[in-house]
Amino acid sequence: MSAKSVKAPSLRESTSWKKALQRDWHLYLMLLVPVALVIVFNYAAYPGLRMVFMDYKPAKGYAGSKWVGWETFAKVFRDKDFNRALKNSIVFNLLDLLISFPMPIILALMLNELRFPRFKKVTQTILYLPHFLSWVIVGSVAYQLFKPSSGIVNVLMKNWGWIEEGIPFLTEKNHWAVTYLLIGVWQGMGWGTIIYLAAITGISGELYEAAMIDGASRMQRIWHITLPGIRSTIVVLLIMNLGKIMGSNFERLDVFANTQVRDYQYQLAIYIYEKGLANSKFSMATAVGLFQSLVGLMLVLISDRFSKALGEDGLL
Amino acid sequence: MARNKEKEFDTINDGSHAIRKFSIGDFIIILVLVILCATCILPFIHLAAKSISSNTAVMQKSVVLLPKGVNFDAYASIFQDGTLVHSFVYSVGVVALFTLLGMIACTCAAYPLSKKRLKGRTFFTILLMIPMYFNAGLIPTYLLYKNLGMLNTMWVLILPLIYSSYNMLIMKNYFQSNIPDSLEEAAFLDGASNFQILFQIVLPLSLPIIATLSLFYAVGRWNAYADNKYYITKEALKMIQYKLYQLVSSATEAQTATLSEAIEVTSTPEVLQAACIMFATLPIICIYPFLQKYFVKGVMVGAVKG
Fold first, then answer.
1. How many domains does chain A have?
2. The complex's ipTM?
């Protein structure tokens, strides 16, 4: 963190607390607000984690529930539902990364090659739109468009004679998987370009001029100048995304839920919600949540190390 | 292959070749971008058309991008019923309060932590960053809010989220890189207090980031619905996204959208659903082109590590 890298002058560092409080009591007073908020709403929840070593019963509370040691974790790892959810989460997150990650890079390269500033601006504005829509809206629009018999996509394809029967885009698990992933790409592609476009503007224009004089084609310029120029951005973002491999977005999964696709849609966030809030298996749900948090944290730390080892900026 | 091309390029050195080749590339790029843009816009035009078309036209599946048999019955029933309208007004209120409190909490954290001279700065920074990397999870959090008596109140949608480490970092970075230390030191020598410096110098110079973060807060709150689902069971306290979710989340075609049984709805579920979606989407679509540039700015400031 920056506090480490930028050393304050030594005189200031050795200020006594009394002096510091006298001089900066306004600042400490301000800090009370966020500190109180995180203590009341975040730190106060941490002791609740002890229920992973208990057989927590909502009626009995923390005091009345039995301590069971590691039994909850053993139960979770034997649980078929958990293993299914874990597998689905990892598979879908990897697929998501594989499909969603390259798209903003490709789009940014295309936008960068575009030579009509106004067209570029309008295009960008439109492509950012999905990022501003909630998953509820994205989900309900998708259901309207993709209904097998009355959704416009199927209706048009039938009218044009491409298909005989409506395709169950969101109501058959394999179609669902593809649709779900593509909607994810669609939602994030425009927004993801911002950071790459910024990195591209940092590349010296002289490089391009020199390459043009040497007769480099457009593809050669992209391959030998633009891509190497944004390499470090790509690496950092890739590592950051790898750190999210254990996460799962409840809202995104929840809006695309239906009984026909449960085999794939049942991922960790859904597991925690259903076991915990819907079925009152509090200890198990908490154990899974803790497992997810800890693995996620570990992945972030590893990513950070990795990124620094590669000579890029760290994330922490 | 590439090498051959390069040679050819060298021999024909009149440039017109290059320009012609470029325009084919341009054409492909423009084509792809136009198609992608179409996927972002056409769904909403289609739904808007559907929401104001007649029931028969929709049943015959003949509405594509232009409405047929224009009428506003579906919207009339939404307003007559009132639940969505009530929820809309309530959501606007929650979002406004959330944004205001959020900006206060954010400034209260970012400003002191942007001061290198602050004693205990590293400690406070770590204290305020840990929740971003590790949270207790749904169940302990749920029980905590229950113990605090916050379930089924508006506050559960506001208070736990007003402090955001992510937004704090953006604001702190902005203060550190855009407000010159010399300016504050000069004010300090003139006898200004920390508060005076904040309100009369720092904040007026930080309007762009204040706008950006307010929008982050507002859009984030407007769009999220999971906490409504976890913590709220009273209909009157649910925000509009969750209402919409309840109305249209089902995939099965037999499912009907019913606003309430008390009023007579003349539109088919199909038309009504389209109208409900548009009702909840239009505000965002209308204002977002104006907000977009602020968001872009925020992403950029956030990307620069301080």
1. 2
2. 0.85
